Structure of mannan endo-1,4-beta-mannosidase:
Amino acid sequence: MASDPSTRNKVTTTFQQASKYGMNVARTWAFTDGGSRPLQSSPGVYNEQMFEGLDFVISEAQKYGIHLILGLVNNYTLARTLTISIYVVLTRVNTITKVAYKDDPTILAWELMNEARCPSDLSGKTIQNWITEMAAYLKSIDKNHLLEIGLEGFYGDNKKQYNPNNLEPGTNFISNNQIWEIDFTTIHIYPDQWLQPGTSPEDQDKWASQWIQAHIDDSKLLKKPLLIAEFGKSSSTPGYNVTMRDNYFGKIYGTIFNCAKYGGPCGGGLFWQLLAQDMDNFGDSYAVVLQLSPSTDRVIALQSLRLSKLLEYKNRF
């Protein structure tokens, strides 16, 4: 969308809406591999028009006070050539701002892989080695920005019993995040996808609270901040309505606020996914269109206000 000048206004509108309701961090992709309009059509071959679209996203985010977390590769694409992507993306000089990505303060953090998994090696060794190698390489180029892995929060070894529905994706929240170059931990929350079919919305919400608390506790032990990098309420949920989504967001936000209030590691959450009007082709059942959801606007704005006031209070002491 950003690569097409005729639709760039949707990017601007989305950032305008986010800023209006106090949001200051967005997570998006610095990749599109394959398809009809890839950023990288083959290893080392990049589409300049797509790159200029990413330049525009970064420049618009800066304009509206939004900091970006940029994912470098998707779980569902081959990650063997990521070193090439890391170098090309990080050293890219924005054609609009004239600032190299690795030097741009608009970028808050890099994400190695969206929803990192390695089901071909459930021992966890393959992805542990991969993260170790990629994290060290990225930090050798860019020491200015934070780095996270892109984990959903699944456990390995002796904590696998905490994974929903006995999922074993070959990752380990504890050991993966112990890697020195990783600056903060992340989790995703999708009980409607991960739990047994037929699990009630109430039980899904209860499980989500337990999932967050487990990772708050473990992030304390790791001595690293925790970001809830994806959560949402699908419109496919039985009995779904906007009030159900608002209540769910409110519960997640309440946990985040209370954790931050008492000095815990979790101080932020990113819902999936924010869209402007008339972006249906880019959406899914989790899409949030603020112009069409005034009650959800209020839930988000309240959380933004509470966290900003809390930060102001803590900065005075």
